[in-house]
Amino acid sequence: MINYRPASDLLKRLLREIIRPRPLLKYWEWADKHVSIPPEASGPMPGRLNTGRFPVFRGLFDLAQQGHVHFISLCASIRVGKTLFSIIVMLYWLAEKAGSAVWLDPSGASAKKVSKSEIDPFIQLCEPVKRLAIIGRTTWTSTWKTFKGKILRFIGAGEEANLHGFNAELAIINEFDSCKQAVVKKKASEDGKEDSSSADKIIGRTQLFPFTRKIIENSSPRQAGEFSPIWQSFLRGSQHYCYVPCPHCSAEAKASGNARPLPEKMPVGWSKESMDPHLVGWQRLVFTNDPAYQPAKHLPFDHDLMPIEGTMEERLGRIDFSCAEIWAEAISPQDATKTIRVKTGYDEDKVEHQTTYQCGHCGKQIEQQSLRWMLNRYRWQAHNPSAPKDRISAHLWRGYAPPELGGGWNHIAKAFLEAKGDIGKLITFTNMSLGLPFIRAGAAINEGDLDRVLARTPMRYVKGQIPRMPEMLTITADKQKDHLYYVIRAWGVIWESPDMPTWSALVDWGTAMSMDELTVLAGEKPDGSGKYRTFTYTENEKTYEFRCIAGLIDSGNDQDVVFEFCHKRTRIFDPYRGSGPVQTNWNRIRPRDVYDDQLKLWLCWSSHYAERLYYDCIKYGQAGDDPVYWWLPVNIDDDYKQQLTDEYKDGDEWVSRRKMNHLGDCEKMQLPLSELVESRLTLLREKRRNEKTEQK
C-alpha cells in the first residue's frame, strides 16, 4: 500500500513557508538592512546606513510609523538628516507598500535635481526597491519613476499642470518653507485660477487613502520669523523634543541606589536603553538657557518625564564656552579712580577644545564625548499632548548631531561668535544651526531702516524709472472712502548671478481718486487722450515698454464695490483681504470663491506678510540665509516714509499708530503677488538654463 503521508507533510511545510508573512520591520530596522548612502549624496559617511550613528532618529521613525499618524512635520537645522529621513521613508514605501508616492520640492528645477542626483543613486543601491523598478525611456525620467504596481512622482511647487490627475499614498513636502504658496494665475487670456497651495494639492492627492496615508513635511525655518510655515506646522502638531539624561546626575543616582519611576510599557519614541531607573537629569539640549532667548516652558510632566496633573517648569542647560572668555581691567564709568573687569573677547583655541555642555540639573560640565552615551538613551517627549493624534511634529538641531556627522558643541559655539554683532549672520545661525525661527521682540520700523534699504539698492534711480530690465510690473491698492492708495513694483532676475535671484523695485506710488483712475495708472485703460500709461527701460539703444500685468485691491472697505469693480471693470485686479491663520487654514494664501463664485478672493495671512515686509525686506534685507533684493528709489517722499514706519510690533501682531499705514499695506500686498511673479520667473530661469545647456 502506498503511503502518501510524507508527501502530504512535505506539501504542508512548503505551503507554510510560501504563505508565511514576512516579519514587519521598523522603518529604521529596514533601513539598516537595505539602505546605503551613495557617494553622490555628499554625506560624511557613504556606505551602508547605520542609524545607530545618530540614534535619536530611530525614535522619530517609530513615532512616524504608528498607524494612526498621518502627518509628520520635522522642523530642523541644516545637515542633521531631515531630507535623509524623508528618503528612507520613501524607499521603505516603494519596497513594502502598495500605494504610489509623490515628492514636492520648492521648484521644478530643484525637483529634477533631487530626483537625478539624490534619489536615483539611493534607488540603485537599495536592492528591494531596485528589483521593482521598471527602467525605460518613458518609464524612468527625472519627474516620473515607474515601479511594479506604483509610481514615484517629482513635482515643483507652482507647477500647476503637474498637480492633478493622480493619487498617492505617501506625500513628501521637501523644504516646506521654500515652497511657493497658492496664487491666482492670471494672464491676459484668463488662463485659469488656482484654488489652493501646491502643498494642499499634494495632500489632497492622498485623500483616497485616509487610513494609511503619510504626509511628511521637512524644512529649516527660513522666512517671516515666528510665522515661518514649518514652525507654525510644528506648533500645530505634538511638538516632540528629544530628551537625554545627564551622565553626572545618573552616575550619582546609581551610586546612591536612587531608582526613578518608569512607565509600565515603553512609550513609542523611547529607546530600550532609556528604560533604566537610574537615569536622571533628563533635559532637551538647547544652545542657551538665557530667559531672554530661550524661556523655560511649563510642561505636563515632571523631571523624570512622567505625566503629572498641572505643569512643571523645565530645567535647561546650555552650551558653555565661558572658559574661553578674555577679561581685562578698565576704568569704571561711574568712578574714574576705580577699575572694573570687562569681557573683551574669546580665546578661539579654548572655544575649539574646551567647549562643554552645562547640565540644567546639577550644573556640571558634560564633555562632548559623553554625547554618544546620552543619545543612545533618547526619549522623544511631546510638549503638546492635546494635538490631533494623527499629527506628529518634532524639532531637531545640530546640538544633537555627533561631530562626525556635522555637529560638535565647539563648532556651534564658534559659529555663534562669528555671527555675533551681525544681524544677518545671527538670523542665519538661528535658522540654520539652531533650527529655530528668528523671533524678534516688539520693535518698529524707522526712517533709518529705510535709509539702509536705499544703501542696499545697487543703483540710484528715481520715481518713475526702472533700475534694471524687468520681466513684469504689478500694482496693489488700498481703498478708502473717497480715494485709493497704490504701489507699483517692477520684478526681474539678476541673470549674471549664479543663483539668478529675484529683484523687486518700487517704481511708483501715490493716490488715485477713483477706481477708473487706478486702471489708467496701471496702464490697463487709456487716459483722456487715448494713450496707455507705460514704464520704459532702455538697453542697447532699444526702448522697452511695460504695463502692470497683475494687481490686488483691498476689499476691507466697500467690499461689494470692490467685488463689482474686479468682476466687471478690470482684468488685472483681484480682491484681497488680510486675515489670520485660522481663516487661511494656516496657509499664507487661501483663495476663496466670492461674488457668486465669479471671483477669487485672495485671503492672506497678514501678520506673516507684515513680518516679511518689515523685517526680511526692510530691516535686515535677508530671509533665512538668502539676501532679499527689495529696492527703493532715492526720492521716496515724506508720505511714503511716514506710512511705511507707522506700524510697530506688539506681541504677535503689527499695530498702526495713526491708522496711516495704507502704503505699507500696499507693500504687504505686493508680497502675495510675488508668489505669482516667482512662478513665472522660475519658468524663465529654466528656459535660460536649457538654452545654455543646448549651446554647450
Structural write-up:
This protein has three domains: 204 residues, P-loop containing nucleotide triphosphate hydrolases (Rossmann fold); 194 residues, no CATH class; 244 residues, Nucleotidyltransferase, domain 5, CATH 3.30.420. The radius of gyration is 29 Å and the shape is globular. The strands form ten sheets. It has an eight-stranded mixed sheet with strand order 27-28-26-25-20-21-22-31, sandwiched between helices. A seven-stranded mixed sheet has the order 5-6-4-7-8-3-19, sandwiched between helices. Strands 10-9-18 form a three-stranded antiparallel sheet, covered by helices on one side. Helix 7 links the parallel strand 7 and strand 8. It has 19 helices and 33 strands. It starts with a helix and ends with a helix. By secondary structure, it is of the alpha/beta class.
Chart the SSEs and their pairings.
Elements: H1 5-19, H2 27-34, E1 36-37, E2 47-48, H3 56-65, E3 71-76, H4 82-96, E4 101-105, H5 108-125, H6 127-130, E5 144-147, E6 150-156, E7 170-174, H7 198-204, E8 214-219, H8 229-236, E9 240-244, H9 247-256, E10 283-284, E11 298-301, E12 307-313, E13 318-320, E14 325-331, E15 339-346, H10 348-354, E16 356-358, E17 365-366, H11 371-375, E18 379-382, E19 391-396, H12 409-419, H13 423-433, H14 447-456, E20 472-479, E21 484-493, E22 502-512, H15 515-521, E23 535-539, E24 542-546, E25 548-554, H16 559-568, E26 573-579, E27 589-594, E28 599-605, H17 606-619, E29 622-623, E30 626-627, E31 629-631, H18 638-644, E32 647-650, E33 653-656, H19 662-695
Parallel strand pairs: 3-8, 3-19, 4-6, 4-7, 7-8, 20-25, 22-31, 25-26, 26-28
Antiparallel strand pairs: 1-2, 5-6, 9-10, 9-18, 11-12, 13-16, 14-15, 16-17, 20-21, 21-22, 23-24, 27-28, 29-30, 32-33
Helix pairs in contact: 2-4, 10-12, 12-13, 17-19
